[in-house]
Design a protein that fits this description.
Layout: E1 3-8, E2 11-17, H1 25-33, E3 60-65, E4 69-74
Antiparallel strand pairs: 1-2, 1-3, 3-4
């Protein structure tokens, strides 16, 4: 199961697991597929692994995933 650490300005502020989305991301996709067709190639975002992190101008936020690598942004 994928895990994530969220850092704001270098400080760890949140952590989460894929299981935080309806107990498993596949359950979220199954719920959606039972309500509407999902075409091949469609990107499905299953939800957030962590609570929302509030940011201000100048903040740098990084998400570090256990197997997918990391991504960061700077708020202007």
């Amino acid at each position: 199961m994928e895990a994530v650490q969220v850092r704001k300005n270098g400080r760890l502020v949140e952590t989460g697991l894929g299981a935080n989305v309806l107990d498993h991301p596949v359950r979220a996709v199954r719920w959606l597929a039972n309500r509407r067709p999902i075409e091949e190639g469609t990107l499905v975002l299953t939800g957030s692994l962590t609570p929302t992190v509030e940011i201000d101008a100048g903040d740098v936020v990084e998400a570090r995933f256990s197997t997918l690598g990391s991504v960061s942004i700077r708020a202007d």
